[in-house]
From TrEMBL:
Name of the molecule in the record: AB hydrolase-1 domain-containing protein
Single Gene Ontology BP annotation: lipid catabolic process
A Pfam cross-reference name: Abhydrolase_1
Organism lineage: Eukaryota, Metazoa, Ecdysozoa, Arthropoda, Hexapoda
Superkingdom of origin: Eukaryota
Record's keyword terms, sorted: Glycoprotein, Hydrolase, Lipid degradation, Lipid metabolism, Signal
């Protein structure tokens, strides 16, 4: 069996992703040999580079990562040799492309690259870029037997270890949107040793407690959750809203600027995320909808439905008997948020149909190191505006960048104290560490440090101004 890791599409007359002159396919026996070395650098399955990044003159790389349970994940990178790495993780039904779709002025991947960061953009198992496995075909029911729990338990560790091994850094910044935040809480709860590898975590539209989610689509899902679950299992439906050529062609046809049906496309987004026509660039609708939705497992939706129904942020409910076998209790255990011992900044909004302010308040109370809790100062700002809003850089990203620098300055200050103490004690310091310290200091000094911080969590127990 041979595996091809990427698809090629033309959207709105422009190639979004295209292959290089030569494509490398890796056979099963090579993949098996790689799995025996879980943390070493992997051979690429497919040597291709995202056209979007090259179009704007940015370098780009495609990397392939193998998880311990056999899933083959694709990461896209805007490389910056020697720079501080940042990992961006998308939400449900989305892909890494979401961070660059809107171009250099407001695409977070570009913004961070311009500031001197080494930008890595992950893809969750099951989306169109991470739809391969070492032994399972995506047509198999077993392939789709995962929720966001497995993403936090297996995908994030594999991505983090791969990035740190490639860059030589000990820590990275993490930025997640929606489900991309939930998987991070899972990682820290299940494998708290990974908190040592995270410099800071930035949660855009953070997901945890979603019992009062306002989205009519998902509230309907909860009402019929038992029926939905039984029907999908009986019919052996395992994948939800995959990205297909038909979907891409259809969105290009009905969502372009001159189409009478363009309002239908925007209203579909508003129904899910919240209404905010002022911040939606409708010209980009065909491109947005060609990448999103991009596939998820039915079991993922079932897990989120359980969270809404129970009011807990906890593991997948397998039923009383299987819970007893799996968890040694009749109900699934909650994820332990007290183990998220990294500096966390929360960014949320009033008009988010998927994330409520009360849910964020509860999350902030349970996280031990919240350094910022920022309510976007626009009443209509919605769930997808964190990615695609016209003014997202001004409204959100400037704040996020300031928080990145605060953490870096804090680390630099205390590292310098440590270096002084080591020098006083006559301890040798490696050139590699000195180079990293110099790079961090240079990056921090090149960024304005003037944004006022408000809405900060009063319970935060880390003082970055110390």
């Amino acid at each position: 069996m041979y595996l091809l890791a990427i698809q090629v599409y033309t959207v709105a007359g422009e190639v979004v992703y295209e292959p290089e002159d030569e494509t490398l396919l890796v056979s099963d026996d090579k993949i098996t040999s790689h799995l025996s070395r879980p943390h070493q650098i992997r051979t690429l399955i497919c040597k291709q580079k995202p056209k979007l990044m090259r179009k704007y003159g940015y370098p780009s790389e495609t990397h392939t990562v193998f998880t311990k349970d056999g899933y083959i994940l694709e990461m896209h990178r805007i490389p910056k040799k020697g720079a501080q790495p940042v990992l961006l993780m998308h939400g449900i039904l989305d892909t890494s492309a979401t961070w660059v779709l809107m171009g250099p002025k407001s695409g977070l991947g570009y913004v961070l690259s311009d500031l001197g960061y080494d930008v890595w953009m992950g893809n969750a198992r099951g989306n169109r870029y991470s739809k391969n496995h070492t032994s399972l075909n995506s047509d198999y029911v077993e392939f789709w037997d995962f929720t966001f729990h497995e993403m936090g338990k297996y995908d994030l560790p594999a991505n983090i270890d791969y990035i740190l091994a490639n860059t030589g850094y000990d820590q990275l910044h993490y930025i997640g949107h929606s489900q991309g935040t939930a998987v991070f809480w899972v990682l820290c709860s299940e494998q708290p040793q990974y908190t040592q590898k995270i410099l800071s975590m930035h949660a855009l539209a953070p997901i945890a407690y979603i019992a009062d989610m306002k989205s009519p689509l998902f509230r309907t899902l909860v009402l019929f959750l038992d029926f939905f679950t039984a029907a999908s299992r009986m019919l052996r439906i395992t994948e939800f809203m995959p990205n297909t050529k038909f979907l891409v062609d259809h969105s290009q046809l009905v969502c372009h600027d001159n189409a009478m049906t363009q309002e239908v496309c925007s209203n579909i987004l508003f129904l899910v995320a919240g209404y905010n026509s002022e911040q939606l660039n409708k010209t980009m609708l065909p491109v947005m909808l060609s990448h999103t939705p991009s596939g998820a497992s039915i079991k993922q939706l079932e897990h989120f439905g359980q969270l809404m129904k129970s009011g807990h942020f906890r593991k997948f409910d397998r039923g009383y008997l299987r819970n007893q076998l799996e968890y040694n209790r009749m109900t699934p255990p909650d994820y332990d948020l007290s183990k998220v011992k990294v500096p966390v900044a929360l960014y949320y909004s009033m008009n988010d149909m998927l994330v409520s302010t009360t849910g964020v308040d509860r999350l902030a109370r349970e996280l031990p190191q919240v350094i910022d809790k920022y309510l976007v100062p626009m009443e209509q700002f919605n769930h997808l505006d964190f990615l695609w809003a016209i003014d997202v850089k001004t409204l959100v990203y400037n704040r996020l960048i300031r928080n990145l620098r605060r953490v870096e300055n804090f680390k630099l200050k205390h590292a310098n104290k440590g270096l002084q103490n080591m020098a006083t004690a006559g301890v040798a310091i490696s050139n590699n560490n000195l180079q990293k310290m110099h790079a961090l200091a240079t990056a921090s000094n090149n960024t304005p440090n003037t944004l006022p911080l408000t809405n900060a969590n009063a319970n935060a127990n880390i003082n970055l101004n110390a």
